[in-house]
Amino acid sequence: MPYRRLDRADINAFFGSGGGRGSRSVAGYDEDTTTMGVEAARFALRSAGEGAEPDALWFATANPAYLEKTNANAIHAALRLDQLTPAVDTGGAVRSGVGSLRAALDGRGSVLVVTADTRGGLPTSTDEAAGGDGAAALLVDDDDEDAPVIAELVAAASATEEFIDRWRTPGEPNAKQWEERFGETKYLPLGEQAWNAALKAAELTPEQVDRVIVTGSHARAIRSLTRRLGVAQEAVVDDLSATVGNTGTAHFGLLLAGGLEAAEPGQVIAVLSLADGADVLVFRTTDAIASYSPARAVAAQVENGGPLPYARFLSWRKVVTVEPPRRPEPDRISAAVSGRTHDWKFAFIGSRDESTGALHMPPARVSREGGAVDEMEPAPMSDVAGTIATFTIDRIAYSPSPPIVFAVVDFDGGGRLPIELTDVEADDLAIGDRVEMTFRRLFSADGIHNYFWKARPIRAGR
Amino acid sequence: MGSHGIKDQVAIVGMGCTRFGEHWDKGADELLVDAAEETFASVGVTKDDIDAYWYGTAMSGMSGMGVARPLQLHNKPVTHVENFCATGSEALRNAAYAVASGAYDSAMAIGVEKVKDSGYQGLVGAGKTPTDGTNRTLTAAAMFAMCVPAYAKKYGVDAEEMREVLAHISAKNHYNGARNPRAQFRREVSTETICASPLMAGDLRVYDCSGVADGSAAAIVVRAEDAHKYTDSPLYIKALSFVAGNCSGNADPDYDYTSFPEIEAAAADAYAQADITNPRSEIAMAEVHDCFTPAELLIMEDLGFAERGTAWKEVLAGTYDLHGELPVNPDGGLKSFGHPVGASGLRMMFEAWLQLRHQAPDERQISTDRTIGLTHNLGGYPGEMVSFVGLVSPELG
């Protein structure tokens, strides 16, 4: 979940209309669905344990950073997955997220299902206020001693019908929606059909469902359907609309991840998603969930947001263009150079001198200590924390969102890199602060996104 | 093996330097012609009398034809050199070595930069090599800004004192530049104005940063024994040193941003070449690379003009003022001149040429019985830089 939060009241204060109560999550200017997908996938693999190594990576989003080019490849590279592990995009539509999870559960082998979305709309619209940005990743696999299954699928059901409720053509920034009542009349019977079919297959009654997650792309239908499911009000999982907003393609996964973090062994957790049909997945938690320790809990991420002024939100979303520093914009990156340095660029792997231990970022052939040549081992640094040795704020350098906050980071166990900070409140920064690495989009030029790593403050509870 | 230098083997016999500034009406070609013609005239030679040329520019031209064409040199060797912000000094170093080798009787080092055509403030245009996009995109101001809190913390200087020190350096250089008709900025600037100017990066304000200017400068070098054929008052080269850093400050947690090891190493080599044991008491004046005020502060210690951790006190005591014990940047420095990269090193040498031969205007002529002048460049950033140190004197021995 991105760090920034927009207070919905700020929208109304600015325009005199729109907005609402609570807050929504906002992807940083340096985040997109791919970078958020990387972050969620890193947390998922770390949560699953040492032995977790997927046989395939599927990435679903309704707002891909690229068309034509597969976005899952950047995630694959950042995770440093085996070259023989396929990576595919399954996205385009909101339903592709939950659909990918269902397909992975129905299939063979282990699949890392990554979902992400950035949601918005015209200023003052419901979509702008109610939407959220985020990503969720789920690792589907058979039981394994090192990476035990924490929830197993009991049953699944879907219902599908063609009708026009929400739509957006390629290149359009914002979706449109038909008159709300029409969609509701379509979604309610589809949702009930799928729900009943899933419970029947699971041989469960609604009362036996301990936790139910209801989400999707039609808020009114979700509310109506929730009342008709026959489950206790306490069983309904908070949909985070007051704090995060609806993260579209990723939202079922975000809520499921949060639900699993709070679950006990033997509980039944059902997911019901309404998006161009209805999808229901019924899980039962295993004994292994008692010792499940998420790398970064959803609840902690919900708590740890920082405010974003509405004007800056509009600038980040390119609704308004503010005067940039008078410096040249960066050139597009070279595919050839990136092609030979991708372990560094995407996976943040330096090199360590095998004899002296001297760490080199970026990786080097000749050691700066002792002078050994080609006697280096890879040094993966993306999960290594560091400390700020010194820092500065650059008010004149080019940035998609000036000013740049920049620090010299000394990594735990050796190694130093001067690197840009992000998700940072510059006034609160101090030498000695602790930071962690995060995968970001530095800039885009000629339609090519420049992905690399930045450092961000380690905050309490994260 | 060894760095032996060329002490007293080569002499500078003529120099020229354009006014530095916004030359909207002149390109690199016109600036080169101006500097070259002034230099030829200072010696009374023509372009044909010079056997070889070294051409310093970082981003205003490529190949030796960048000089051969505007000066219309016929069948002369012209070598283009580039070494970041030390490019002008690098041209001089190579020209001097060529003469010392016996390959040529005379050579010209000429540097130029046309910076103001880019449409941007600051230096742009260098480094168009295709990259993977992982390289740092910070400005130089921000990189040098990181030295300020590091130095202050290490030596217990509080933020207000530090601001006063930096402002003193800026005010001193502007004071000197106000007395130099070739400078870009010819106004004294009060410390109050400096401290109230807009923030650029970290604690650095506009007046902590050098200007942006076009300019050109040149020198003619000959063998020392031939020097008096050209002039009654040559300047003998005592030392020329250069260090290209291995960028370890970016990778080594031991580097603490309170010194520039590349400068310390270049200075040690130069002092050894010239048999200098106590630079603080032996050097008459120094032109150093004050691209940003904290750079000049740290350079004072790297060059041995102050003990570690004490330069800030010396700055406040006026040690490096125009009439202080060791005047630093008596011509106004990069602060007053701006920084046309290919020309700056030769512009510094031009000030040594004037001061040590007592030809500077009265209002900024220093008075000392010392005879050694020092010029210094750095190019790059804290943790990753090149450095040049040159020593010259009107006296042999």
What are the salient characteristics of this protein?
heterodimer, A: 462 residues, alpha+beta, Peroxisomal Thiolase, Chain A, domain 1, OB fold (Dihydrolipoamide Acetyltransferase, E2P), 2 domains, five-stranded antiparallel β-sheet, four-stranded mixed β-sheet, 12 helices, 21 strands, 25% helix, B: 397 residues, alpha/beta, nine-stranded mixed β-sheet, two-stranded antiparallel sheet, 11 strands, 19% strand, globular
Overview in brief:
The complex is a heterodimer of chains A (462) and B (397). With 462 residues, chain A is α+β, with helices and mostly antiparallel strands.
Give the arrangement of secondary structure elements:
The complex is a heterodimer of chains A (462) and B (397).
Chain A: E1 4-7, H1 9-15, E2 23-26, H2 33-48, E3 56-61, H3 72-79, E4 87-89, H4 95-106, E5 111-118, H5 126-130, E6 133-140, E7 151-159, E8 166-167, E9 176-177, H6 180-202, E10 211-216, H7 219-228, H8 251-261, E11 268-274, E12 278-285, H9 298-303, E13 306-307, H10 310-316, H11 335-340, H12 342-345, E14 349-353, E15 359-360, E16 376-380, E17 386-394, E18 404-411, E19 416-420, E20 434-445, E21 448-457
Parallel strand pairs in A: 1-13, 3-4, 3-5, 10-11
Antiparallel strand pairs in A: 1-2, 5-6, 7-12, 8-9, 11-12, 14-15, 14-16, 17-18, 17-20, 18-19, 20-21
Helix pairs in contact in A: 2-3, 6-7
Chain B: E1 10-17, H1 28-43, E2 52-56, H2 65-71, E3 78-81, H3 87-100, E4 106-113, H4 140-145, H5 147-155, H6 159-177, H7 191-196, E5 199-201, E6 204-205, E7 215-223, H8 227-230, E8 235-244, H9 261-274, H10 279-282, E9 283-287, H11 293-302, H12 311-317, H13 333-337, H14 341-356, E10 372-381, E11 384-393
Parallel strand pairs in B: 2-3, 2-4, 9-10
Antiparallel strand pairs in B: 1-7, 1-8, 4-7, 5-6, 8-11, 10-11
Helix pairs in contact in B: 1-2, 3-14, 6-11, 6-12
